[in-house]
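Customer escalation, tier 2.

The customer says the design service returned an amino acid string that "doesn't look like it belongs to this structure." They asked us to rerun it and document both sides in this ticket. The original structure tokens are below, unchanged.
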């Protein structure tokens, strides 16, 4: 199958814009009031744009491979549904599950922490340890990881391969920075909470 045979999937700029708005709105559930979060948000937004551009706009990875290596990549290898020739649409189904799970984590985490911490004046917030925060300390960043991983499972591109490690690094650094701030604010209460929970995934 060639790119010409599936050209109807590309140059859908309306879908391109809708996708960016839809998944870019996830950033509304992250703490905009903290300037330290600007860099992680930028890396996530760049990933979303790269995904939408190649899924709905132009298959840049395919054209790049044809130009740089003089090869036409089969569908499922850096363009089209990931591993389409070996697993069909199962990558897309897995991607949907990961993206929905990540979105639920982000919104549920925001709902819990906004009420008791983000909306409070400095020094008046409470350490949130209920709901998903009873198991992991950064459910919203876990959600970002799952959403972006889901997109790669659905439609892997060269841009995503380059950007995903960047997303992991900047959000892990952001999480560690926030934890130092939490230790300064809540002292031993946060140290104990940190020891009892996982950073991004529940402790075994």
């Amino acid at each position: 199958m060639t790119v010409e045979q599936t050209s109807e999937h590309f140059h859908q700029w309306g879908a391109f814009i809708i996708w960016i708005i839809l998944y870019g709105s996830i950033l509304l559930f992250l703490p905009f009031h903290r300037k330290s979060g600007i860099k992680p948000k930028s890396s996530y937004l760049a990933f979303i744009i790269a995904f939408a551009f190649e899924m709905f706009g132009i298959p840049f990875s395919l054209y790049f491979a044809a130009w740089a290596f003089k090869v036409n990549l089969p569908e499922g290898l850096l363009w089209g549904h990931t591993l389409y020739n070996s697993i069909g649409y199962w990558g897309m189904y897995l991607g949907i599950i990961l993206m929905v799970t990540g979105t639920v984590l982000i919104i549920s985490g925001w709902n819990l922490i906004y009420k008791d911490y983000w909306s409070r004046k400095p020094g008046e917030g409470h350490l949130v340890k209920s709901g998903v925060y009873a198991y992991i300390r950064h459910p919203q960043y876990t959600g970002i990881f799952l959403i972006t991983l889901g997109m790669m499972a659905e439609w892997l591109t060269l841009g995503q391969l380059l950007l995903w490690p960047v997303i992991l690094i900047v959000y892990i650094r952001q999480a560690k920075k926030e934890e130092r701030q939490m230790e300064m604010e809540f002292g031993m209460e946060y140290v104990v909470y940190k020891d009892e929970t996982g950073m991004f995934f529940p402790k075994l």
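Tier 2 assessment: The sequence is consistent with the input. The mean pLDDT is 89. The domain at 3-196 is CATH 1.20.120 (Four Helix Bundle (Hemerythrin (Met), subunit A)). Sent an explanation to the customer and offered a walkthrough call.
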